[in-house]
Amino acid sequence: MTDKRPPFPPFTEETARQKVRAAEEAWNTRDPERVALAYTEDSEWRNRDTFLRGRAQIVEFLRDKWRRELDYRLRKELWACTDDRIAVRFEYEWHDEQGQWFRSYGNENWEFAANGLMRRRYASINDLPITADERRVAL
């Protein structure tokens, strides 16, 4: 394992918060290649009803996601952590090509390799249609 991404497990509350903040910042760039570098080469994902394995599938998934989910903006929050695992709650807002806004809520369970890269990500997500005036400015 030549790739390393501190902080490394085992996580404390402080280092888990750092990991969550780094993930939030990376996802808000909407750069699939940058985001994928935080995951092991053979990382396993479940995102809603989609199952992925490896960085190449992650990159393609994220490209497609951000083609559909326009003006995407995400906020993540630490829920819990243990040695090599972090649980996160999140919400993000986006709109489709027709201008319909959504707020998507969910939870993620993350498992990390010793080098600090995420080897498993399991996400459950629900979408709520909202009006433009219901958007959260602070998001």
Automatic annotation (TrEMBL):
InterPro entries, per the entry: DUF1348, NTF2-like_dom_sf
Domain of life: Bacteria
Pfam name, any one: DUF1348
Name of the protein in its database record: Histidine kinase
Organism expressing this protein natively: Streptomyces chryseus
